[in-house]
Amino acid sequence: MDASKLIADRMARVDSSGIRKVFDLAGTMPNPINLSIGEPDFEMPEPVKARAIQAIAGGHNRYTVTQGIEELRRQVLAVERDRTGIRHSAVLITSGVSGGLLLAFMALVNPGDEVIVPDPYFVMYKHLCRLLGGRPLYVDTYPDFQLTVERLEAAGAGRGKILLLNSPNNPTGQVIPDRELERIARWAQASGVFIITDEIYSAFAYDGPCASVARYSEDVLLLNGFSKSSAMTGWRLGYAIGPDRIIAEMTKLQQFSFVCAPSVAQQAALAALSVDVRPYIEAYGVKRDLTYEGLRHKFELPRPQGAFYAFVRAPNDDGDAFVQEAIKHGCLIIPGSVFSEKRSHFRLSFAAEDEAIRAGTQLLCSLA
C-alpha cells in the first residue's frame, strides 16, 4: 500500500519545523557555536530535582486527575493572580504551554476562523491555526516588533476571532508595554476579539517587570509554564487559566489526548514555585547585553527586552542565505523566515555560555 495515500489532507497544511532541522544539523557538526536553541543553558534547580526524585520514590508515578493535582492548581493560580491580576479561577495543568496551545486551538478554532498573529511569531501559532482549518491574519510589526492598536487596525484585525499575544516575544525578545496592553485589551473587547496570551518568558524581563494583558480583560486565556524559568523543558509542564467554559472544554479534550500532565513533573513544579530565579535572570541580562553590544555595530536590531532571543536584520535582507553562510562557518542560528512571512532577518538565542556568545557574535560580524 502507498502510505502517502493514507496521510490526512490536513497534514499538507503543516511544514516540518525549521528549528528542528537546525537542531538535527547540530548533532552532525563537530563543536559548533550553537546560538539556535531556545532552551536555558542552566541546570534545573536542585530543590526541583530533589522533589522529583522524592516523588518517584514516593510512588507519584501514576495518572493524576485530568485537570492536574489540586495543590499545584491552587498555587499557580495564586502566583498568577499576584503577578497579573487575572480574575479567573479555572486552572488546567497542561503538557507544556505547547500542549495548552493545542488544546486551546482545538477548543476555539473552527474552519475558516481568522486568528490574529502578530508577525514575527512563535512558529507553532501559524501551523496549529492552519492544521485546524483556521486562517492566520498576520499583523506586520516590523521594524521595531511592537504590537500596537494602530497596527491591528491597519491589518483589519477587528474581523478576527482570536488574538495571540506573546510577550516577552519569541523570536524578537520584545516586550509589549503595560500602557499598550491596556489599549489592546480595550480594542479587543470593543471588537469582540478573544485573547490568548502566551507568557512562558514572563520571568525573563530585563528592564522591569513584564505586564500582562490579563490585568485589563476577562476575555483572555493565560498560558504559562515551567520550561524556561525552571529549565524544565523536557518535563513538559505548563498551565492554562481562563474562563470556566473554555477551561472545561480544554479539560475534556485533555481526557482524550494527553490524559493528564506528567505526574512527577507536577510534583517537581511545587518545588519550582518556591525557587528564587532572580540570579538566573540577572545572568541572562548580562547575556542580553553581550549579544546586543556584540552585534549592534554591524547589524540592525532592537535591543532585546525579554526572553533570550535577538531578531537581527540580515545583510541584503536575506536571512536564509546568511544563515546558510553562518552554518558553513560553524555557527548555528535560525532563519527569520521560520518565524515570519518575511525572510529578511535571523534569530539568535543567547541561552548559551558567555564565551559562545562572544565567539558567535564576532563570527557573525565578520560575515556581515
Describe the structure.
This protein is an alpha/beta fold. 39% of the residues lie in helices and 15% in strands. It has twelve helices and twelve strands. The strands form three sheets. Strands 2-8-7-6-5-3-4 form a seven-stranded mixed beta sheet, sandwiched between helices. Strands 9-12-11 form a three-stranded antiparallel beta sheet. Helix 4 (96-108) packs across helix 8 and helix 10 (278-295) packs parallel to helix 12 (354-367). The longest helix has 18 residues, at 278-295.
Short description:
The chain is an alpha/beta fold. Helices cover 39% and strands 15% of the residues. It starts with 17 loop residues before the first helix and ends with a helix.
Share of helical residues? 25-40%
Task: Name the poorly predicted regions.
Answer: none
**How much is the radius of gyration in Å?**
20 Å
CATH architecture of the largest domain: 3-Layer(aba) Sandwich
Tally of individual domains: 2
- Strands of the largest sheet, in order across it? 2-8-7-6-5-3-4
Name given to the CATH homologous superfamily of the largest domain: Type I PLP-dependent aspartate aminotransferase-like (Major domain)
Q: In what range is the share of β-strand residues?
A: 5-15%
Order of helices and strands: HEHHEHEHEHEHEEEHHHEHEEEH
State the shape: globular
Return the structural class. Answer: alpha/beta
Oligomer: single chain
